[in-house]
Specification:
Chain lengths: 355, 355
């Protein structure tokens, strides 16, 4: 059985295409009272960009707190907020920002249509009803959240995505101009999410020609962006992220992402930086990828944080290992069916203790 | 304004995934009486493959005549056939075959939902109502018809596609096993449709990073398939075709396709072979592409037909030029806004007379 992969329904790509968002939304506003929820990264609350958001009088703007990685409890709070704003469902939910804002928009649009807490749906294909129409406008590229069928959430027990066909965006607006002003470290770490993603997917056991074609091109684009500084770097990084996300259709990420989830859960480390921290210790598994990653770090003068785990209590360290071990598809992709014999708790502990 | 590109909703890719078609169709059969129209290339009528088509008792199999390129009159005939089969609309139309069968399935699903003749809709965005749900199962790769927003038809006056968001398939089933048995010449010419498509798109004036990323990877895959014979050649050709089709989102084909349309209209030449015939005389415009194309021909011992136009009447030659000249977006992509000053009737006549 091969996954019948759900794709984003519509994509617009081009410098300045953000200006088309109002027109795109007009097709969703079927009644004059139809309202749209803009879920926007709070970094834009006091920026010039704020005035470009095409919100009508009846619309709702939520400035999404992205200081922490998205939590299921925060999703539940946002859903309550939208429900108390209107007894009708919104005509659409638009996530504007990086991976966190996009994942929040996905989760809110799903949870507006499904009962209970977001934590109830962390896993694979647990969502039963289609989400409210939802769109993404990335202002940061690398996570692949714009095309993926997951929204990664930290719940009370675990960091795990709501993986579902209904999670996929109905519309994405890819405007390379919007990712131009990202601070260097954030640009780098988010880009490395994509690069590492490709290394893990291309070296994994799940790969087929569909995912390989997307993964290889994404990696080529990452190399161009992070080693050669092309003039259309933003355009290429945006495509690298999109292709990297698509490459996951018939593949999976691997060891680095599994370890990074543990780092995020226990230390609150953001996903991009968590990946970079973990990847630097994985030369045993991804020798060429780690070598090239270090070249990219050197070129952009990135200093990774060190000694994050050394002072940690045993209890927290063991929790970190628990969180990483939950992600069996990632381990299986990286190490094959017998992964559990290779990647023991001891081995994971040793890896974490070096970080 | 950038096109808000409509994508295929669902894609399944993998060796043997054709076996999942019955299950996929079950989601479309909402009533027990729901019927599906299978529009299958007639080459399969007496093949073993016939028994693998998951037709239920109430379904309709149409063996599509693909000896000629799809005509608007043939589409109208097929639509009548489906309408007289049942007063209900089918739950789905499934095209199984190469570009012709897929284009016929697109056109029939559109014309079941829209009044008049298919010829009324040749052009851009003339279709008003959504098509019947439609799916494609390519058994030949290269045209990109599986992802494109057009169905190319020969009408009474012109060869021109029905270009519309509604034309796009709802589902594609990409099973590389199905393209394994294609005769060499057909395999080559259809693959060259994809290769030439990439040359024209990548060298065109309309290109952006979205189309470039898809076009470059498609071309890499074509090079691998036609110059290196990889072990997973069928999988890669299938992906080359898909990526080639996607690259057209923000680009266009060019001179070769425009000339090829004229050859098809007047001489009835199939699209793939028409492209190859025309491309061989375009070294002035696509020097590197034509050189590499000739390497591919040599490697696979392909002999192009020659002297196709020399004996033609003036009237037919002028009609050929008319058909080619209609395709202004193709000429503009290739030669810029002032294309009409460069590509005069005389110039086109000279090119055709060499073929």
């Amino acid at each position: 059985m091969f996954r019948n992969f759900k794709m984003v329904s519509q994509v617009v790509f081009g410098r300045g295409c953000f200006n088309q968002l109002d027109e795109i939304l007009s097709f969703q506003r079927v009644k004059s009272s139809s309202f749209v929820v803009f879920l926007v990264d709070h970094v834009f609350e006091n920026s010039e960009f704020k005035s470009r958001i095409p919100a009508h009088d009846q619309d709702m703007i939520i400035w999404a707190d992205t200081d922490d990685e998205p939590k299921t409890s925060y999703v539940d709070k946002l859903v309550e907020k939208v429900k108390s704003f209107s007894s009708d469902l919104p005509a659409g939910v638009v996530g504007i920002g990086g991976g966190s804002a996009m994942d929040l928009a996905k989760a809110v649009s799903l949870m507006l249509a499904n009962p209970g807490s977001a934590a109830d749906y962390q896993g694979w294909d647990l969502i039963k009803k289609p989400a409210v129409w939802h769109a993404a406008v990335p202002t940061l590229s690398g996570t692949g959240a714009e095309v993926s069928r997951t929204t990664v959430l930290t719940g009370p027990q675990k960091k795990l995505g709501i993986n579902s066909d209904y999670t996929v965006f109905d519309q994405i607006v890819l405007d390379p101009e919007l990712i131009a002003g990202v601070p260097k470290e954030q640009w780098f770490y988010t880009g490395m999410d994509c690069y590492i993603h490709c290394v893990e997917s291309l070296q994994g056991t799940f790969l087929n020609a569909f995912s390989q074609s997307y993964g290889e091109k994404s990696m080529d684009l990452c190399r161009e962006v992070f080693l050669q500084d092309p003039s259309d770097s933003a355009d290429k990084l945006m495509m690298a992220s999109y292709f990297g996300g698509m490459s996951i259709a018939y593949s999976q990420v691997g060891i680095c992402h599994a370890l990074s989830y543990g780092l995020s859960f226990v230390l609150g480390l953001h996903h991009g930086i968590g990946n970079s921290v973990a990847f630097d210790y994985l030369e045993e598994y991804y020798p060429e990828g780690v070598r090239e990653f270090r070249q990219m770090m050197e070129k952009h003068e990135i200093m990774l944080p060190r000694n994050l785990v050394s002072g940690l209590s045993d209890e927290k360290l063991e929790k970190m290992i628990d969180v990483a071990l939950v992600l069996s598809p990632l381990w299986e992709n990286a190490l094959g069916k017998d992964w559990a014999e290779i990647m023991t708790r001891d081995k994971i502990r040793q890896l974490y203790q070096r970080m």
